[in-house]
Specification:
With 463 residues, the chain is α/β, with parallel strands linked by helices. It is built from 14 helices and 14 strands. The chain folds into 2 domains: 10-76 and 329-439, Aspartate Aminotransferase, domain 1; 79-327, Type I PLP-dependent aspartate aminotransferase-like (Major domain) (Aspartate Aminotransferase, domain 2, 3-Layer(aba) Sandwich), CATH 3.40.640. It has a 7-stranded mixed beta sheet with strand order 4-10-9-8-7-5-6, sandwiched between helices. A hairpin with a 4-residue loop joins β2 and β3 (61-64). The protein is globular and about 65 Å long.
Length: 463
Amino acid sequence: MINKKKLNISNSNKIYKSAIKIIPSGGQTYSKGVTQFTEGFAPKYLDRGKGAYVTDVDGNTYLDYVMACQPLIFGYSDKDVNKAIVKQLSKGTSFSLQNKLEVDVSRLLIKNVPSAEMVRFGKNGADATSVAVKIARAYTKRDHIAYCGYHGWHDWYISKTDLNGGIPKFNQKLLHSFNYNDLGSLEKIFKKYKNKIAAVIMEPITVYTPNCYGPKNCKSKNCKIFCKKNFLKKVKDLAHKNNALLIFDEIVTGFRYSIGGAQELTNVTPDLTALAKAMSNGVPISAIVGKKKYMKSLEKTFFSFTYGGDCIGLAAAKASITKIKKLNVPDHINKVGLILKDGLNKIINTHELGKYFECIGYPCRSIFVFRGNGIFNELEMKTFLQQELFRRGILWAAYHSISYAHKKKEIKKTLKIFDQILKMFKNLFIEKKLRISSKLEGKVVKPVFRKVADFNSIINKTS
């Protein structure tokens, strides 16, 4: 049965009409913008959130699987994190001298993250990855970087994308991409740039590569292993053999995939680690942690700014890390996420759509994959599913950022709705052979980045 309900987004549209006159691109974060949520049909502005649900400025409520681009590990407006924030607000937010919270949170990170011996704080993930690269360059006295995955907006990295306006060209010459599960691609970089590579920086677990679909201990029939033949260990050995540092970008994986991050799951400890997102349940703070001999480079390398010791972020991080550990949140979100992931693949197979769709990735943060197979436009496929999910009260961007607030009833509701939509997809576009574009009520979504040069690992990446 086709649901013809049209969302009322009049207030969203009115606000956006004003915004584009005074804000470049109309917003602050690309992956929250109108190109990522079918413009003309989807809401543009949210007003509030509680648990796993959000309400937009027109009063529509949605079950949210984006979770503010993944940091909300407890869900919106968590009472314990809020309590810690309010308590700190009454004391003050930023001070003229340092604050004990810096020490408290540093100790928590050192206790829980294997690579952490010393800690410094930033405000967002790109702060942490960028200072990690700066530390590596300062320590090794080298300039070139080998990378795999997405690592933020700063010049050293984003120069290889089509969003590189204002960045000096020399940055591109210092950055070299390698492929996950392909040690040979990294070996070629070390060979070509002998004694020039300062660091290897990578997402230790990624689903943006075809050969890494999930955890090594996952019981799902649709999961594959983390990586091929101890890939991460071999990357570490190769980096150290060439006197380069290994940096894990655990902005996404830290505290979500495991309390100690991917490095705890894989038993591969990097030299430096970048952390953010789940460590504070959405309140801005990040951290660079690592071994003392490398972190001490910051004593002679400038990394200092007014809000580096902001106490609101620190209070949120202290409350979040404590609660994550107390409730063993990674265990819950992986179990619930596995029910969703397996359920989605079962529905896909029931409707004989495995040729076109698959749910892959680690259960706590799975990805919905589209395969047009020369028949369908993949972005149109994504747009259609997103449109119909919005229509039925689900906010979705092709990944499932599970929070502690997502319980079995939310998963059951989601699977029921996906079953309806995929059944409709098969009926309309396979059996009746209609064009997907004929059923779209808004604009087709776009990738954040387009492929440029050797920038091959973040196409369609949400950031």
